[in-house]
Amino acid sequence: MNPMIALCQGFVGEIAPVRVINVISAEIVGAIAASGLVLALTGQIRGHVALGSGVSIARGLFTESIAAAALAYLVLLITHEKRNPIGALAPLTVGFALTALELWTIPQTSGR
């Protein structure tokens, strides 16, 4: 579970506050452990984070904020037990939405 999604589900009361803290803590520890594993196996951690050419900081922040909010809203709508109109297709719907959001944001906020 993504920490942003856990936080949103905590805000709307779908999961308990203690679980929100546990999930976010587990995500952070897992990310640190995975980074350590990559560093141990390869000897380096490579990554490039930069805005696309011609993209201002404000536009990059706006783009990422809208994408994160859209993903959180979609996940909250789909995972709500009483209002789940698509049932077993929920993971596929989230996957399609994530792909569309990535296709929109990558050229703007992960440029070279």
Description:
With 112 residues, the chain is an all-alpha fold. It has two domains: 1-47; 49-112. Helix content is 70%, strand content 0%. The longest helix has 26 residues, at 17-42.
What portion of residues is helical?
Answer: 55-70%
The backbone outline, from C-alpha atoms, is globular
| Structural class by secondary-structure content | mainly alpha
Largest sheet: none
Order of helices and strands: HHHH
Terminus-to-terminus distance: 29 Å
- Low-confidence runs: none
Quote the beta fraction. under 5%
| Secondary structure tally: strands | 0
User: Mean pLDDT score, rounded?
Assistant: 85
Structural domain count: 2
Output the number of helix runs: 4
List the helices and strands and how they pair.
Blueprint: H1 3-11, H2 17-42, H3 57-79, H4 90-109
Task: Give a brief description.
With 112 residues, the protein is mainly α.
Summarize this structure as a short list of keywords or feature phrases.
single chain; 112 residues; mainly alpha; 4 helices; 0% strand
